[in-house]
Amino acid sequence: MALHSAALCFGAVSSNPRTCWSSRFSASTRFRRCSVNASGFSVPSSSPVLFPQFRLQGKALPIDNNQPTDESSLVVCFGEMLIDFVPTTSGLSLADAPAFKKAPGGAPANVAVGISRLGGSSAFIGKVGEDEFGYMLAEILKENNVNNDGMRFDPGARTALAFVTLRKDGEREFMFYRNPSADMLLQEAELDLDLIKKAKIFHYGSISLITEPCKSAHIAAAKAAKDAGVLLSYDPNLRLPLWPSAESAREGILSIWETADIIKISEEEISFLTNGEDPYDDAVVRRLYHPNLKLLLVTEGPDGCRYYTKEFSGRVKGLKVEPVDTTGAGDAFVAGILTQLAADGSLLQHEERLRDALRFANACGALTVTERGAIPALPTRENVLNALLKAVAA
Fold first, then answer.
1. pLDDT tens profile 176-198
2. N or C: lower Cβ tally within 10 Å for the chain?
C-alpha cells in the first residue's frame, strides 16, 4: 500500500483498491492483518551524513532493522508515535471534510525520521498498539532507517489517532483518540536503557508527561541519559486538549525545564508559559533561560527563528514558501538542528556556524509545510540544500 497516496472516508472502505484497512472507527474497531509496504516514506540507505489505564507490559516484537547505528552521532527520540488523519481539502471542519489522508505522526517520531532523512543517525523509543497501525508505524521507522529497537507493542491498547483540521492558511487544530492509547502506557521496565546511554542527544516532548505510567518512564529515561553524559533536547510541543487543564499543562511542561540542555519553543508557547507576556520581548525570553541551558531556540513560523546562548543571541530569517499544511514543521526544524549538533557539538560555541545550521533548520521546516502530513513531507538533505541554493540565487 502506498501510504502517501491513501485516503480514507468515514464509514466506508478506502477508495484506493490496494488498501486493505477497514476504515470504520468505533469502540469496537477491529483490525485484520495484511502486508504493509511503507515504501512511500522510505529513503535510500546510502543517504550521506549531513556533517562530520492498562498495566499490560508491551512486547518488543522481533524487528530486524538491518541498519548499523552510528553511535557517535546518535539522536534517540522518546515519546509518542501515532496516525494523523489530515483532510484532503483545507478550510473545512472535520465533519465537512470529504476524506482524510492517513499519515504517520507524533512529534518525537517525526524528529527521528527527519534526522534519518537528512542523513543522520536516529532511534525511536515509545509504545504503539499491537494492531495494524502499530505494525505499520514500526515498518515506517524501519523503512526510513530509524532504529526501532526501543519500540514496544501493547496488546491491550490501540495506537493513538489524531484528526487534524486544516485552516485555509495551513494552520491546524487537533482532535485526539486516546482512551488511553498505547503511547500513554509505556512503563519504566520497558525502556531500552542501553540504547539511551549510547546517544549523543536524547530528545523528547511534554505529552509523555501527562499520565502514568509513561510520565515515570519519561523521567527515568531522561535521568539515565543525563547520568550518561547525553545532551537533553526538549520541545514542549504544547497540545492543550490532552492536558486536564491549562495550569496542569504549564506546571507539567516547566517541571522538567531545568534539566534540558537544548530547548526549542514557539512564540505561542512562550506566551502560554509566561501567562500572556510578549514573546518578542527578549527580556521575557531570557527569563526562560535557566543556568545550565546551552541553547534556547524560538521558532517564528515563516519568519524563521531566534537563538539564545549564554554568550550571544540573534535571529535567522526563514525561507518563504506557499504553505499547504504546517503539521510537522517544528519537528523538521528540530531534526535539522539536532542532526548538525549531533555531528558537531562545537556549533554551540561559534555563532556564525550556528547561524548557518539554523538557516538549514529553517529550510527543513519550510519545505515540510509544502506537503500534507508530517512524516511524508519531511525533506531530504538534497531537497534542503537545493532550496537554500535557489534562495541565494533568487
1. 998 899 999 999 999 999 999 99
2. C
